[in-house]
Amino acid sequence: MKALLQRVRHARVEVEGRCVGEIEQGLLVFLGVEQGDNEAGLERLLERVLNYRVFADEAGRMNLSVRDIAGGVLLVSQFTLAADTRKGRRPGFSTAAEPAVAEALYQRGVAMLNAHHSPVATGEFGADMQISLLNDGPVTFLLEQ
After folding, report:
1. Which residues pair with 97 in a beta bridge?
2. In the chain, what are the domains?
3. pLDDT at 63
4. Which of these is catalytic: 25, 79, 125, 145?
5. Which among 2, 3, 10, 100 counts the fewest CB atoms within 10 Å?
6. Average pLDDT of each block of 10 consecutive residues along the chain (145 residues)?
7. What is the per-residue burial (b if ≥16 Cβ within 10 Å, else e) of 77-93?
8. Is beta strand 62-64 parallel, antiparallel or unpaired with respect to 55-56?
9. pTM summary value
10. Is beta strand 72-77 parallel, antiparallel or unpaired with respect to 26-32?
């Protein structure tokens, strides 16, 4: 399982021209689910996301988490994070979880985030999404479970 975090000033997800999720300052989190991933791993990963210190404190050091700043979390499923890119000119997706498994874990992740943090917004699983954001820094991290 992979989570690509982007520290943002704001982020928005649209599907067919309608906004399905939007946050102000916080984290845009792209989630890629791979074969063998499970709920326990998801819980550990999301706990890291909520407590990962990527926001500046008074001294300008990355010492604050999204929880500390009461920022938003926008969770978006991203199948392509599970791609095998080690060789060739085209990504392979043999390591990605089956769509039904990935969707179930994604929806469980949404529920977990909502139970432990606010505000939380989401994309739409399996949809063709257009995402606009203002990356703050830029600051981007890849967390792997």
Report:
1. none
2. 2-126 (3.50.80.10)
3. 98
4. 79
5. 100
6. 98 98 98 97 98 97 98 97 92 94 98 98 97 97 94
7. bbbebbbeeeeeeeeee
8. antiparallel
9. 0.95
10. parallel
